[in-house]
């Protein structure tokens, strides 16, 4: 790890792309007759972190998928840096918006490094050497440069999730989405992943984080959004949402998770 970090930082001045603002305006989406998103408005300022909390089935994952256009809304708009992205090429948008899932979806038969270089050579057009160098740089950022040659299966779940984060970061996104990134991890592995996410937030990334980790939301989020039945029912700074919830639904939710 010593040599790789020294080499990569000396030769790869890969500044993280500065985070840009994300917003949705009156986003609606139904699966058949099930209205899953029913007018979602959110504003995440550039370089800030918003945490989305809410009961299972409230539409949190669907909302993230609309933001990076894995799903198209029936109505409404998604804006990055104040500009609508719904007319853009979805593949291009997905390079601007990185996403980390509960299950890391790494390719098991490829090395950690190859998991990261694949997108860089195929989508970003980097040469093999450039891609390998950039992969090491981002592995170093998550403390895993020494695992570059390992197969994902030999890593802990927490390490695999940090590789997934490095893979997303290597695409130099302007926004990062996290969908319950620590929910599948053994309890002792959660902290390391949350620390990586907190570092990223402190580094100026814009982050929209669906999480059950209320401690993370309190300490890292500038804004907490409570979703229920496809709407943002309440939002505000963490101290307000956690200490002075206004709606019965939020009070009830908090009494179950805190
Ligand atoms: P959350 O992430 O808050 O648990 P989701 O966004 O995953 O909620 O799901 C919200 C609702 O939409 C749920 O009732 C779920 O069953 C439904 N849903 C999600 N994805 C699909 C789909 N592809 N087809 C049909 N229904 C779906
Ligand atoms: Mg979900």
From TrEMBL:
Single GO cellular component term: plasma membrane
SMART domains cross-referenced by the UniProt entry: AAA
What Pfam families would the database entry show? ABC_tran
Q: Which GO terms describe its molecular function?
A: ABC-type amino acid transporter activity; ATP binding; ATP hydrolysis activity
Provide this UniProt record's keywords sorted from A to Z: Amino-acid transport, ATP-binding, Cell membrane, Membrane, Nucleotide-binding, Transport
Main location group: membrane
What membrane topology is given?
Peripheral membrane protein
Read off the CDD domains from this record. Answer: ABC_HisP_GlnQ
Instruction: Identify the residues that the record assigns to the ABC transporter domain, covering every copy.
Output: 22-254
Q: What is this protein called?
A: Amino acid ABC transporter ATP-binding protein, PAAT family
Q: What family does the entry list?
A: Belongs to the ABC transporter superfamily.
Species annotation: Pedococcus cremeus
Region Disordered: start-end pairs: 1-19
Q: Where would you find this protein in the cell?
A: Cell membrane
